[in-house]
Task: structure prediction
Amino acid sequence: AMILQMRDLEPGFLPSLRYISNTAAALPPAHIERLRCLFPGVRLYSMYGLTECKRCTYLPPEELDRRPGSVGIAIPNTDAFVVDDHGQRVPSGVAGELVIRGPHVMQGYWRNEAATERALRPGPNPWEKVLYTGDLFRTDEDGFLYFVGRKDDIIKTRGEKVAPKEVEAVLHAHPGIT
Result:
């Protein structure tokens, strides 16, 4: 979180601040703890979004402690679901590509038909497209989304597929690493 990089931050700074949102990825637990310390009255929203459709999921503040690492559920008027390599929805707990459907999904990449065809596919209605994000997610049993990694960012080691995000989570959890 960029706000944590500001110098001389002390609890009570910006006392009228009511909301903080993060849209890059789920906030690490250490960042959540620090933000809560600095801004005790703030409602903290962990969100997920990307350039092609901006914000598309949010984690309600009351779910932060119950669902660490989650970026939540789809924002209103948006569908967010996880599919396999054949475009079929996968059950909870299974990683697959996140697909976004909604009015804020881009129309295409400027002068790049090949990239547009890879990212946008026909939606359930003849006039719409859905966005294949290239990001791997899984859902929990309640439908909350968890970022796993990028489809093109998977490392294969000793016959196992490992997402760098999983390695990062282990490193964030280690007390000797800040």
In short: The mean pLDDT is 89. The longest helix spans residues 29-38. Residues 2-173 form a domain with the Rossmann fold fold (CATH 3.40.50.12780).
